[in-house]
């Protein structure tokens, strides 16, 4: 399959035209409208240096909130060790994720993403518009870990997480799953599988199944999306 070259038009090719490794398109920009269109079509940016690379892998790692595996130790940690907040310091969370070394690679050996300043600006812009959210874990008044992603419909598209204290990012995930269940269930898109995610209950589904689930969760392809708050009630 060819890799599509994007221009200034807000369009993406059908995700089914992605290469076998998931690479679909190259170029474009990280404006809010393009990012919203991409995520609503099951596409995400992932690159180290320009140009921007856009992916829709044939196998998508997902986690149903109700299927999150919570060990007895993790449950106790989630209850007692950290204070958890939502959207209190998105900028600090994404920057902490950016400076955390990554080892993630694609099946073809592509290096993992480094969250550069352009990515930080773009996702902070989505946060300011109500599309991106963060979950923070605090201990003794200090940020100990967290995660961030984009919430469209009832699908949370997870982008990255970090920890400065043991289990802090896992606790953030536990609370994210609980928040989603309170709002009627949904799905956590983990993008690319790894043993750590699998140990927590994440699993792969086909691209086609993922796109069908997006639609069932109220995500319709388009540059206009409705901001959804991350429920904490």
Notes on the protein architecture:
- The protein is α+β, with helices and mostly antiparallel strands.
- The chain folds into two domains: 4-55, Leucyl/phenylalanyl-tRNA-protein transferase, N-terminal domain (Alpha-Beta Plaits, 2-Layer Sandwich); 60-216, Leucyl/phenylalanyl-tRNA-protein transferase, C-terminal domain (Aminopeptidase).
- Helix content is 30%, strand content 25%.
- It has helices at 32-40, 72-80, 90-98, 117-128, 168-182, 195-199, 207-216; strands spanning 4-6, 23-27, 44-45, 53-55, 59-63, 83-86, 132-139, 142-152, 155-163, 187-191, 203-206.
- The strands form two sheets. A seven-stranded mixed β-sheet has the order 6-7-8-9-10-5-11, sandwiched between helices. Strands 1-2-4-3 form a four-stranded mixed β-sheet, with helices on one face.
- A hairpin with a 2-residue loop joins strand 7 (132-139) and strand 8 (142-152).
- Helix 2 (72-80) packs across helix 5 (168-182) and helix 3 (90-98) packs antiparallel against helix 4 (117-128).
């Amino acid at each position: 399959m060819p890799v599509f070259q994007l221009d200034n038009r807000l369009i993406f090719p059908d995700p089914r035209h992605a290469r076998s490794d998931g690479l679909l398109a190259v170029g474009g920009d990280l404006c809010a409208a393009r990012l919203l269109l991409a995520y609503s079509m099951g596409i995400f940016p992932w690159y180290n240096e320009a140009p921007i690379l856009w992916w829709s892998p044939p196998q998508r790692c997902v986690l149903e909130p109700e299927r999150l595996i919570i060990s007895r130790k993790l449950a106790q940690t989630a209850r007692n060790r950290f204070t958890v907040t939502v959207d209190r310091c998105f900028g600090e969370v994404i920057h902490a994720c950016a400076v955390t070394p990554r080892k993630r690679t694609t099946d073809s050996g592509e290096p993992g993403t480094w969250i550069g300043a352009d990515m930080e600006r773009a996702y902070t812009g989505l946060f300011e518009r109500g599309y991106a959210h963060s979950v923070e874990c605090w201990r003794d008044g200090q940020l100990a870990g967290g995660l961030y992603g984009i919430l469209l419909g009832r699908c949370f598209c997870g982008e990255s997480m970090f920890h400065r204290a043991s289990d802090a990012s896992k606790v953030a995930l536990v609370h994210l799953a609980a928040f989603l269940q309170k709002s009627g269930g949904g799905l956590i898109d983990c993008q690319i599988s790894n043993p750590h995610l699998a140990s927590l209950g994440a699993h792969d589904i086909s691209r086609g199944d993922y796109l069908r689930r997006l639609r069932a969760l109220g995500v319709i392809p388009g540059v206009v999306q409705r901001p959804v708050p991350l429920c904490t009630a």
